[in-house]
Amino acid sequence: MKLKRALEKISSRFTYKEDTFKSDYFDSWRVMDDSQDRLYGDCDDYAMTVLYEYYKTPWDFFLNVIVLRKAKIYQAKTMNGNKHIFASIGNKYFDNWTLDKYYTRKKFLKHTKHKIIREYYGPEILLYLIIGFFKG
Q1: How far apart are CA 131 and CA 135, in angstroms?
Q2: 71-77 and 115-120: which strand pairing?
């Protein structure tokens, strides 16, 4: 139920906006500013913000996403051939395509038609969040 509430809270205010900073090697990930009426970001910003809302504090977010990896971040190829980021907590998978819903891994991949390319690990996630912090 906690994940459902986090998804509903973020999804109801989320508007997709592509990053202006992109390269083949680096992306910038960020937790969107929850004090705003609307939340503008892309797929990785959505995933990070939902996870942050779920864990509630910076320490719990850091511990569970970066260190313990209770939440996981994936890169996928969409049915259109684009790269995409989505996340999971346990066997609950979600992204900005499914918005306020989550699915088991099998149902999520069938529903979205994403093809997993890779999983991100702590140091990479931290690096992308640092880039996002300085990018603003």
Answers
A1: 6
A2: antiparallel
Cross-strand bridge partners of residue 85: 75
Look-up of token digits 């603003």: 136
Quote the tokens at residue 123. 């140091």
- CA–CA distance from 48 to each of 2, 56, 112 (Å)? 16, 12, 19
Find out whether 28 and 10 touch, Cβ atoms under 8 Å.
no
18-64 pLDDT, tens digit per residue, is: 887 666 667 889 999 989 999 999 999 999 999 999 999 999 999 99
Q: Which residues of 44-83 are buried (b: 16+ CB within 10 A; e: fewer)?
A: bbbbbbbbbbbbeeeeebbebbbeeeebbbbbbebeeeee
- Beta-strand relationship, 71-77 and 39-41: unpaired
Distance (Å, rounded) from C-alpha 89 to C-alpha 119? 13
